[in-house]
């Protein structure tokens, strides 16, 4: 599903279908990055999170993990027997939220994202107002692999 179509259609009544697995949407959060761009993050059942990446025309499907990786975060790190390379870091602010209150409007997070050559994805995050870690690990998903049902 193209990201533009996804952003127009997604709501709490939908379920997300990825690789024959259906996920319930618990919360939809629109985040704004420091550069003004917007992305949508869906908090799904079983601790999964789906985020769109309009620039790369892809999604990331990740789940909560405990990494025990401390700041300052390195350029290259080993996690889950894989070698991750730093991609970028950003500050994001929730500007709109619907559903469960994992994030509410005005909440912010800082994250450091890493990738492997095989498409594995690791995001090390810190929620600003609580200082709590929100580390997520999973993989990139192409537009063709995602469907709203």
In brief, what are we looking at here?
The protein is mainly beta. The protein has one helix at 3-9; strands at residues 15-18, 21-33, 38-44, 48-53, 58-64, 76-79, 82-99, 108-115, 120-127, 136-142, 146-148.
What does this structure look like?
The protein has 149 residues and is mainly β. The protein is 5% helix and 57% strand. The protein has an 8-stranded antiparallel barrel with strand order 2-3-4-5-10-9-8-7. β7 and β8 (108-115) form a beta hairpin. The longest helix has 7 residues, at 3-9. The model has no long low-confidence stretch (mean pLDDT 95).
Which helices and strands appear, and what pairs or packs with what?
Layout: H1 3-9, E1 15-18, E2 21-33, E3 38-44, E4 48-53, E5 58-64, E6 76-79, E7 82-99, E8 108-115, E9 120-127, E10 136-142, E11 146-148
Antiparallel strand pairs: 1-2, 1-11, 2-3, 2-7, 3-4, 4-5, 5-10, 6-7, 7-8, 8-9, 9-10
Main β-sheet, in a few words? Answer: 8 strands, antiparallel, barrel
Structural class based on helices, strands and sheet pairing = mainly beta
Number of helices: 1
Q: Encode the helix/strand succession as letters.
A: HEEEEEEEEEEE
Based on the model shown, name its key terms.
149 residues; eight-stranded antiparallel beta barrel; mainly beta; single chain
